[in-house]
Amino acid sequence: DASIPGRYGFRRRSEQREVALQAIWRCSARLVEAEVDGAPETEAVHCGITWSDIPPGLDPAEGELDEARASRKRDQVTSLAGNVLEMMADGARVVEFGAGSGHLGILLAYLRPDAQVVLVETKEY
After folding, report:
1. CB-CB neighbours of 65 under 10 Å
2. What 3-state class would DSSP assign to 25?
3. Positions of E strands within the chain
4. In 3D, which of 62, 64, 65 has the Cα closest to residue 107?
5. 81: exposed, middle or buried (C-beta count within 10 Å: 0-12, 13-18, 19+)?
6. Which of 14, 32, 82, 113 could cross-link 47 (Cys pair, CB 3.0–4.6 Å)?
7. How many other C-beta atoms can be found within 10 angstroms of the C-beta atom of residue 62?
8. CB neighbours (10 Å) of residue 54?
9. pTM surpassing 0.85?
10. Angle CA(99)–CA(55)–CA(77) in degrees, nearest 5?
């Protein structure tokens, strides 16, 4: 079992994750690079979210963030959502790895109820 500390030479889980990510990249780098090379160049898309129209629990600025941080967080989520929404086909299946608190994935699920959105996060919240 690779999760047993020290058994495979890892002193920390972060070392284990790093090795796993490197192995995944070795296997998928050519595919990712071919896809990126063949993709048309586009500018960042902003999906025009009016946060006051979004249900309260979906706004990443809610909680204990100061106004500057809340504004940056909204901008980040808006920019990412705009790009993802542009790429999503009808009935798309989306997996967000490293979803954190889920702001992006939950917003996508709200904006596109036809899509199946799965959030994956290793941290316990």
Report:
1. 14
2. helix
3. 93-97, 116-120
4. 62
5. buried
6. 82
7. 13
8. 15
9. no
10. 35
